[in-house]
Amino acid sequence: MSDSIRVPVSLPLSTRQCFGLGAPPPQAFPFNGGRTQYYYLARNAIWHGADSLGLKPGDEVLMPGYHHGVELQSLIAKGMKVRCYRVDQQMQIDLDDLRAKLRPETRALYITHYLGFPQPVTALKRIADEAGIPLIEDCALSLYSSSPEGPLGSTGDFSVFCLYKSIPVPQGGALSLNRADLPLPPPPKEPDRLSTTAYILNGLLDSLLLSRVPGGEALSHGLRSMARAAKHASGSTVVPIDTEEFDVSAMDLGTREIARRIVRYTDPARTVATRRANYARMGERLDPAVRRVLPPLPEGACPLSFPIFVKDKVATEQALRREGVGTINMWSRHHPDSPEGSFQDVDYLRKHVLELPIHQGLRFEHVDFVAAKASALARW
Ligand SMILES: Cc1ncc(COP(=O)(O)O)c(C=O)c1O
To answer: Over the stretch 261-300, which tens digit does the pLDDT of each residue have?
Structure first.
């Protein structure tokens, strides 16, 4: 991240969350009961969830053509075969194409809720039930999101969550086993302290950056540079989060207690309300010449970001960064098992979707700043 960034995509960590101050707020799915296991990354949860379901090498899993890539890789690395179905330009599953792709050798149906927007889970569960196969719900981008049918992730036989995308944990994925007969995987191993401390420090510095403390922005940039230099000088490495590389040796890693405490001290209701308000504000403030990807926010949805279509992702990303706005270039890379040309709409999404930040660490003044810059630099 450039030192001049004023609105980061990464999440600020408050001292209350970090040190567990005061009474913890009421929790939401998947942390309010049920059988939820924490992992270092969401891909670990997919890996172990597949074992709980009893999936075997050679089994075919039907997956969305629009994917990060690492979720496919988790199953491919276990020897499973992946077959993809179509997702449209509004990131909705094409149910007709999905039904057409189902065949007798399909052993599981995998669905993804994109950026907090729900897929039609009841219809999807019915399709899976009629085929006699389990439903896997990927909520990596949809923590705390609900539809009128209930919390996302509560319908599938198991569901997975990527925690560090939505809350300021130094690491974390979660596996929710929603069927009583599914065996709990073996307890994961504790990750190292240095990786944890490095990401915690980043979160605290983001908090300072976004605070109203006089000089907070400069102090945050200065301390971050010092921390980077110290890390470089010591030659230390961290186990990365938010990485496209798949490392099978990290599959058994779990979380440290501080990550679980941050989850307990994160207020789901407030997180959802702030993200929804920021999303709505962004929609109002953006120039109409900036093209929206998604329909209006459905009731209960917790948006992860505000995606827009831009002509040139890299150029727009760089232009916004120079103006102090962090963005996410969503999923440009094609996985070799679903190459370019497999689905026209997916190719379009990969080529044109950029995510603007609307997370819970931002106040309206930040959202207005992002909207103004995007209105100037991200018109179609
Ligand atoms: C849809 C989806 N599923 C799974 C994952 C894997 O998450 P993690 O990086 O925590 O392993 C990602 C990561 O971005 C994702 O976008």
So the answer is: 999 999 999 999 999 999 999 999 999 999 999 999 999 9
Q: Residue 342 is part of which domain span?
A: 1-380
**Ligand 1 within 6 A of 42 CB?**
yes
Determine the atom of ligand 1 nearest the C-alpha atom of 331. 16
Element (H, E) at 160: strand 158-162
- CA–CA separation, 162 vs 299, rounded Å? 22
d(CA 14, CA 18): 6
Which residues, at least 6 apart from 41, have a Cβ–Cβ distance to it below 8 Å? Answer: 162, 171, 172, 173, 241, 250, 253
Q: How many domains does the chain have?
A: 1
Tell me the CA–centroid distance for residue 357 and ligand 1, in Å: 18
**223 CB contacts (<8 Å, ≥6 apart)?**
205, 208
Ligand 1 contacts CB of residue 70 (under 6 A): yes
Distance 10 CA to ligand 1 centre (A): 15
**Ligand 1 pocket check for 113: Cβ under 6 Å:** no
| pLDDT per residue as tens digits for the range 220-249 | 889 988 888 887 888 778 899 989 999 999
Where residue 312 sits, what CATH number does that domain have?
A: 3.40.640.10
